[in-house]
Specification:
alpha+beta; eight-stranded antiparallel β-sheet; Uridine Diphospho-n-acetylenolpyruvylglucosamine Reductase, domain 2; 21 strands; binds adenosine-5'-diphosphate; FAD binding; single chain; FAD-linked_Oxase-like_C; globular; FAD-bd_PCMH-like_sf; Uridine Diphospho-n-acetylenolpyruvylglucosamine Reductase, domain 3; 606 residues; 15 helices
Length: 606
């Protein structure tokens, strides 16, 4: 078979030869996705560097001496200075030098170098080196945290510890225990393909796109869509290098196994004895995770479906109908409720197919376009999946149809009722643990598309969901963006994920997207709604909204940070947590900060 290439001749990396590559089964799909993205690209593939970023407070010669020291310990080929043109690439060929979806200047959030450890001992060595030279390091697993900062580091000139490139082994799959133990560079694609190869009756749980790191996504508290969709809740045991270089295993891994082996219960029981500490290593900068255990789901029957709702005002009623179904766990997975505009976006066609005007796409235009799609002229679309044997699925579907049937004009559809190229077929795969690429399609919405997620948590109550939706809609109209909401409902809460898709070559769009994010964070917080996750550059502002009792949570986080990381070397600023060396020195981008990120940058003026 010849190597698949896109229309621009780009070779798509294959998982058989590269840990971060695409599985052969998706090679053609990847080519098509890349070609579609290229057809929307007007910006040059790479940009000439203005400067090479150095760590703060470190001169060029001092940096070179420190880097040479690292090279002599790890091998020259495993330390790479970031001095070449910056290439944004695309999902399957993403950079580890900067945030490919830059919202500030492309040069901001760039590293000074990347280092590729081979094992945990080398990670410890790098951490000792960072402490010695007071150089901030920023760990990534795969670096595909797109929409949240990608592989960018908050403090420009940090050294990226790219763990995935050489630490990408599946260390164990325990078929009897239905669990696995992985290194940072294991993607959902890789874990899935390995389970298929071994013909094990197990499912993984993956997010919308399959190229991310299983470990990286979990520690950033990402979600997927099977009953195991809460990734952090389904992890079991971690190995970490602490910011001082000390090695720690959490959970039952803290107890040595017989004759020095791993503890046999490490992937069976999450807590150990004493405080359950794993949580503090998620969305934080307290440790570098080098191994992590996960539970896998025993395979089962499944049936995906779609329910459409006619009226815009049905939103509140739909959420009210979802709540009892979610609380009673009749809804099998983490279902999604999307606005109908998303049905246009997932066709992969640019918005200009339907509307060439500026600002938010008018409702009438959406209506007209949707009426020509399989969903028809509706307002909301619910994607769900039920699990178990056929009898269980049938009885659950009956309850679900009855509940949603009370909403006038709702329509229930199975994948067979929809054309073969409809998005539901890729949802059915994701919801049964098959990682795919289809979700890239909505990136064709605008040229040179990048995106930011605004992700507040809503109680599963119509009134609250509506309040959030109203704020988001009002502010998207003000700042001139389409509202692309997806509400992922777990049980008592929903992650309301609003996707701001912007042209990264257009400074005005970047400024407006930034303004929109900042105002949405403020306005939601005033009503008591907070984000579960955010892009690196909005982390300070989001962290600041968790201000109860004079910011008790922030102060607690800072106490832990300073105790564990006395030199503030590990990922300063991540999740709004700065070590004492950086704190209060102008790095924080808080509410009311008047800077123009594009013009003024995101670092303090020294
Ligand atoms: P993915 O490729 O799965 O999206 P990333 O590698 O981009 O994930 O990780 C998401 C974020 O989590 C990173 O930006 C980084 O801050 C943090 N992170 C990733 N891997 C590790 C790790 N092994 N140890 C500590 N933090 C990590």
């Amino acid at each position: 078979m010849s190597t698949p290439t896109s229309t621009t001749g780009a070779v798509i990396p294959n998982l058989n030869s590269v840990y971060s590559g695409v599985p052969t089964r998706l090679a053609n799909e990847a080519v098509a996705a890349k070609s579609r993205l290229d057809s929307q690209r007007t910006v040059r593939e790479s940009s000439v560097r203005k400067t090479v970023s150095l760590p703060p407070g470190i001169g060029k010669e001092q940096f070179e001496r420190a880097i040479n020291e690292l090279k002599s310990s790890l091998g020259r080929e495993n330390v790479e200075i970031n001095d070449k043109p910056l290439v944004d690439g695309w999902y399957m060929q993403h950079p580890n030098t900067h945030d490919a979806y830059h919202i500030a200047d492309q040069e901001d959030l760039t590293s000074s170098a990347a280092v590729y450890p081979a094992d945990t001992a080398e990670v410890q060595l790098i951490v000792h080196w960072a402490n010695k030279h007071k150089i901030p390091v920023y760990p990534i697993s795969m670096g595909r945290n797109i929409g949240y900062g990608g592989a960018g580091c908050r403090v420009r000139g940090s050294v990226i510890i790219d763990l995935g490139r050489r630490m990408n082994k599946i260390l164990n799959i325990d078929a009897d225990n239905a669990s696995c133990l992985v290194q940072p560079g294991v993607s959902y694609f890789a874990l899935y393909e390995e389970i298929q190869k071994r013909k094990l009756p197990l499912w993984i749980d993956c997010p919308d796109l399959g190229g991310g790191s299983v470990l990286g996504n979990a520690i950033d508290r990402g979600v997927g869509y099977t009953p195991y969709g809460d990734h952090f809740a389904n992890h079991c045991g971690m190995e970490l290098v602490l910011p001082t270089g000390e090695l720690l295993r959490t959970g039952m891994g803290a107890m040595p196994g017989k004759d020095g082996a791993d503890n046999p219960t490490w992937q069976s029981f999450q807590a150990a004895y004493g405080p359950y500490i794993d949580g503090i290593f998620s969305q934080s900068n307290y440790g570098i995770v080098t191994q992590m255990g996960f539970w896998l789901m025993p395979e089962t029957g499944h049936q995906s479906y779609m329910i459409t709702f006619k009226h815009e005002e049905d939103f509140e009623h739909i959420v009210e109908a979802i709540r009892p179904l979610a609380q009673k766990r009749i809804l099998g997975n983490i279902p999604q409720l999307r606005h109908v505009i998303q049905e246009l976006a997932v066709t992969g066609k640019p918005r200009s197919t339907w509307y060439k005007g500026k600002g938010k796409m008018p409702r009438e235009v959406i209506r007209e376009a949707a009426s020509k799609l399989p969903c028809g002229d509706v307002s909301w679309v619910f994607y769900g999946t039920q699990y178990g044997d056929q009898a269980t699925i049938n009885s659950q579907l009956k309850i679900i149809q009855e509940a949603f049937g009370k909403i006038q004009g709702s329509k229930f559809m199975l994948p067979n009722d929809l054309p073969p190229d409809h998005y539901i077929h890729s949802r059915a795969q994701v919801c049964s643990g098959v990682p795919v690429l289809r979700e890239l399609d909505w990136l064709n919405w605008v040229p040179n598309a990048a995106h930011l997620f605004f992700s507040p948590i809503s109680p599963t109550k119509g009134k609250d969901a509506k309040a959030i939706h109203s704020v988001i809609t009002k502010l998207h109209t003000k700042w001139g963006f389409d509202v692309l909401p997806t509400i992922c409902i777990a049980s008592r809460e929903g992650h309301y994920i609003s996707n701001i898709v912007y042209n990264r070559a257009d400074e005005d769009e970047k400024r407006r997207a930034t303004g929109l994010m900042r105002e949405m964070i403020n306005e939601s917080a005033k009503l008591g709604y907070g984000e579960y996750r955010t892009h690196l550059l909005f982390a300070d502002q989001v962290a600041e909204t968790y201000s109860w009792n004079n910011g008790a949570l922030r102060r607690f986080n800072e106490s832990i940070k300073d105790a564990l990381d006395p030199n503030s070397i590990l990922a300063p600023g991540r999740n709004g947590i700065w070590g004492q060396r950086f704190r209060g020195k102008g790095w924080e981008i808080l509410k009311g900060d008047q800077r123009d990120m594009l013009k003024d940058g995101v670092a303090p003026k020294l």
